[in-house]
Design goal:
The chain is α/β, with parallel strands linked by helices. The protein has 34 helices and twelve strands. The strands form three sheets. Strands 5-6-10-11-12 form a five-stranded antiparallel β-sheet, with no helix packed on it. It has a four-stranded parallel β-sheet with strand order 2-3-1-4, sandwiched between helices. It has a three-stranded antiparallel β-sheet with strand order 7-8-9. It is globular, with a radius of gyration of 30 Å. It starts with 13 loop residues before the first helix and ends with a strand.
Length: about 750
Amino acid sequence: MSESTFDFLKEWNEDAFKLALDMERQYYIDSDAALTYSRKFIEELAKDMIWRKKLDQGSLVEMIRSLQGAHTLSSKSIDDLHYIRKLGNNAVHNHSTESSIHLTRVHKAMFDISVDYCARHFDMPNIPHYTLPSVPVTSSPMDDQSMKELFMRLLDDVGLTAPPAIPEDHIQVEDIKRPAFSYLNEEVNDNYLFTYISRLQETSKDAVENGNDPLNELSNYLHVDRKIQIELVEQLTNSHENRLILLCGNVGDGKSHLLSYIQKKHPDLLSDYKVYNDATESFDPTKNAVDTLLERLKDFSDQSLQNNLSSSKMILAINIGMLAKFLDHTKEDSEYTYSSLREFVEQTNVLKPGKTISISSSFFTLFSFSSYQSYELTENGPKSSFYSDLLEKICSDSPENPFYDAYRVDRENEVDTILHRNYALLSQKNIQDQIVQVLIELIVKHHELISVRAFFNLISDLLIPVNWNELKHVSVKPSIMLENGLPEQLFNRPERSKLLTQIAQLDPLRTRHRTVDDLYLSLYTGGDVDEILEHLDENAQAFYSPAQVDSIQEWTGQLIRLMVLSNPEFAETIQDSVYRNYLHFLYQYNKGNTRLLQPLYEISSSAYYKWFGSPKPYYVYTKKITNRHRLAFKAEIEGNPTKIKSSTESVLSKFSPTILLHFNKKGNETNLAELEIDYPLFQLFMDIQDGYRPTKEDDHRSIKFLEFAEKIHEMCTSPSEVMIVTEDSKQAYLLSQDRFGTKTFKHMGTAED
């Protein structure tokens, strides 16, 4: 049974396909939402066509005009694009009661545009048959009583009905000593919590630190110990020789904060060191970054080291990309050369995929943030003590927490805003844990680098709605909480930042899962909602008056997002199974459990054969020799786990975020082909297992896999044997030559692929 009228589009544009699914999901439920998704759908298609034609991207109407001028679509498709654009705009801004009358035509127009788009840009074999969206039917609905009980507990737990009470057992302290007042450098009029949370924003002056200076007081409070800090302090404590310590990482990952922290807590350890927080910063405008590094590192050049002229102790914080550029530049002839430094860096593996090796030489030590992941791997799934500890710093009810004390001061002054409700939500352990899981999923799936700076900015975005100025003096009704609450800020505000744009892709409403569909329909068509309304306070009950009782259906999506964040059991039931399996293999790989990796070797080798096509077992197509004939060669490969290292730790904090597998030609274990598997490639492998055929775009996105395949080709191609397959009849013939030069031509039957 097909998933959608737009199933054919999934192969060519998955993002547009998902938006089409969203439109169909809302088709019989919320016409304005359906029209809004239809507009997002055509915008996604327009962006893709603009990119393919290398045209300038602008507003939607500008892109449609550009596509029209470039004759990218038919005139009818252009008219349909304008038609959907206008209706989508009206749905967003006007919420017309007549929007439902346009849905049938809009859905058909979306289909026609999609067919035109695919036919012009891809090799689409058959034109699909158009059908209206099917009426949603729940064949095995959730138990209504269980759903209601879960939902009512949710309403009580998350403070949707009333602001959380202030704990009575809080330690009373004099105002002058309260944390809420201790960290302030400005006067606060009426909202202490807003003052503190806004200091987490990337635009705040607290966001950027100078590694040459101690931490400010708030940054010092927010500090969380990390393994890299502990090991660096240990190195500084135990080493007294002249040496260069390289502190490598990426922008915003905490290099400056770490140096500032050590400057404050252990100033004696840095007294003999030159500390360069920005390796490329120079007061000479005529020098570029490489020139600056050449000047600073000359005490660690080959010339100085060979003649024992180095008398420096230096800590250099540097981005990995700049380090690679510097080492590449100094390969050329110059006054100073750095082959010793280059050899040391190459030994650490910091510039290559996989795990960075922690080693020290006579003159060099390297610490890389990239080898200390922001999350840990365990047998039961990933976790992040780092992000969890940061959330604990912000939300704990300890007397020393200025954020919590600011919340208390405001509540004592009867200040209750959407910010305070969101803060109360974030203070719940279940919600903190689920947010951390969302971030880990984002890191794994999209290679997102979430720096400390970006994390704090995210927390600010989750707590302070984008329309804060409109809401800061408004009473918090359930509708305001649902529309502007933390779950909506997390999953449904992609326009606020690059990070939230990525997180929006993990929105549970975009998940095609039976449990989500059942819950959606149960909430929307559950009938009697009186039992739910009884658990709301008087203000909420007044808002949901009998005449408006059906309006609870408007918030179905928001309630599902809220339930995912607050109920870990529910969140686990809808977790992506491919993601879960990848994490299992990633853990076993870093543990060195090769026996448990055998299924992954089989998945990978199977994907290799299916990617290129296999006419017979262990044979792989290479190229066409004529329009009627294709060549294939024998590539019987087997997994070789000999290079996988083992670990005795059960919780892994230093590990490779990708999996490196090795294969050899059967019978020859000396020549190995390396395959690096990240989550996107693993997901593609699983799709191939389900019958998906890779496209040219998949080739472009999977360069490392193609390099692996090329290595297999080199190892296995034999000049004495080749298989020829006819294109029309799919008959396979084996042409071979023995060591005496005798040639044979044998019919092998019908090709399997």
